[in-house]
Each structure stands twice: as C-alpha cells, then as structure tokens.
Amino acid sequence: MNPRQTADAIAAAMTARDHQALMDLYADDVVFHSPATAVTFRGKSEVGALMAHVLAGFESWQRTFVLADDEQCVFGAAGHIGGPDVELAEFIRLDPGRTGGRDPHPRPPPGRHRRHRGGRRAATGRTA
Fold first, then answer.
1. Burial class (CB in 10 A: 0-12, 13-18, 19+), 110
2. Residue 124: inside a domain, yes or no?
3. Cα–Cα 20 to 30 A to 66, which of 4, 7, 48, 104?
4. Tally of structural domains, the chain
C-alpha cells in the first residue's frame, strides 16, 4: 500500500469505527505520540488500546484533506467528541505497507488557546 492508500484505509476505518481494520494497518512496532499526553504509546498492544478509546470517544470523524509522498502522509480530520467539535492533522510515517508512526496535532476549540510545547521528538517506528 502506498501512503495515499494507507491514508484512505485509515480514514475508512476511523469513519466506520472499525478497530480491527485500523489495527491491521499498523506495524508491530508502531509508535504513537499525542500532544494530549506526555505518554508515548509503543507497539500494537498499547496503540490498539488507545485507539479503542479514541474510536469509542468520537461521535463523528471525517477526513478533510490528505497530502502524501512516497514514505509519509499528512491528513486532516474533523470530528465531534462529547460536546466540542475538534479538528486535527496527523503526520503518518510508513514502513512498507504498514503505519510505523502517528503524530496527531489537534487544533484548539474556538475561544480556547493552547500553549505550544516545542521540542517534541518525532516518532521513528521504522523497521528494517
């Protein structure tokens, strides 16, 4: 699967709330960084548990844009979680045919300001 096809498959799984389809896209050593927590989630087990909660929390989820090259993609999404609407962009790095890393970057809800925390290390998630 190329990055665009992977982004399309992630969007389809998220929209359908299909946890198994989403997990099938991840490399075994996937790394997920979230600006919402200082915790880094490593491996399918940790990321799978996180994504089960994410899928359960979203009342709606829709991809809004996608940009892709040979090894990575960025896509935007909009959704609704228990009251507020959210917008985010995700940066995804790929291993051959699998998602090696995900870094979501949410946009603060209107009327709220978020302090930028710089220096966040990029996920590698690469396998040989």
1. exposed
2. no
3. 48
4. 1
